[in-house]
Amino acid sequence: MTLYxxxxxxxxxxxxxxxxxxxxYDCTIKDWDATEEGTLKxxxxxxxxxxxxxxxxxxxxxxxxxxxxxxxDTSVRLYDLPSIC
Length: 85
Known about the structure:
0% of the residues lie in helices and 56% in strands. By secondary structure, the protein is mainly β. The strands form two sheets. A four-stranded antiparallel beta sheet has the order 1-2-3-4, with no helix packed on it. Strands 5-6-7 form a three-stranded antiparallel beta sheet, with no helix packed on it. It is flat. It starts with 9 loop residues before the first strand and ends in a 5-residue tail after the last strand.
């Protein structure tokens, strides 16, 4: 299977818990979800204007899934993963 959804080079792919996350030089991180047909589709896109270097995921003390991203502007961003994933 080949996944299409980014418009520039894919820099990272994370398979974590029930999540498949990809990041790209197109300044996005995408959440992928399985369809009834057995393929994968983008269910949510995070747009990060400063560019994503490396995403990572973790579950916090409240059992919520969090996404951390290092960015080209020397910052680290924290996102809640949507419940649809």
